[in-house]
Every structure is written in structure tokens, then in C-alpha cells.
Write a structure and sequence with these properties.
de novo design (two linked rop proteins), mainly alpha, 106 residues
Length: 106
């Protein structure tokens, strides 16, 4: 979906903010892909990084909407999908935390 919107961003934003949004989408995909093959704390670490990147992506999209580089309809469409991804990621993080052994205090 984002790939359909990127070419329509104003030139002043396409190669700066648009490029940053594009690379953040890719980074999130990479982190989630890596998390799929990991276990324990390593998996949780990559899931938490993915969640932080997702929050950053939402921030960049909001900026693009506020400066009117992205219209309201497109912003809402992207936000709805990202909110759903966030819920799924949150559930995955909770599940990964539950699988970790309890911390022992010394």
C-alpha cells in the first residue's frame, strides 16, 4: 500500500521523509523476519525493536500528514493497518515474555 503512495508525495518530501518512511517499513519487516527464527530473550529483543520502529513509523507518517504531504484518506488507511500490526506485535511480545523463565533475584 505504501509503495502506491510514495510516488505521489510532493517532491520536497518524497526523497526525505518519504524515503525515511520507506526504509523504516523495510527495517520493521527485517526485524520481524529475524524474530521468527529466534527463541527466548533474543526473540523478545527483536520484537521490542520492531515495536519501537513501528512507533517511529507512525510518528513519521503523522508528520507527513501534518505537513500535508500525505492526504487524510491515505493517512487513515495506513494508520488502520499499522494499528492492526501493532496489536499483533503486542500479542506476540506478551507471548514471548510469558515463555521466558522467571528472573531470579540475588
Amino acid at each position: 500500500m505504501w509503495q502506491d503512495f510514495l510516488p505521489n508525495l510532493p517532491k520536497t518530501s518524497r526523497y526525505s521523509l518519504g524515503s525515511k518512511i520507506d526504509s523504516t517499513f523495510i527495517e520493521i519487516t527485517e526485524l520481524i523476519y529475524i524474530a521468527c527464527s529466534l527463541q527466548g530473550k533474543n526473540k523478545l529483543s527483536f520484537l521490542l525493536k520492531s515495536s519501537a520502529k513501528l512507533d517511529l513509523l507512525k510518528f513519521f507518517l503523522r508528520i507527513s500528514w501534518e505537513i500535508r504531504a500525505l492526504d487524510h484518506k491515505k493517512y487513515i488507511a495506513l494508520s488502520e493497518h499499522l494499528d492492526e500490526i501493532g496489536k499483533m506485535l503486542g500479542g506476540w511480545i506478551r507471548q514471548a515474555k510469558e515463555k521466558l523463565p522467571p528472573e531470579t533475584e540475588e
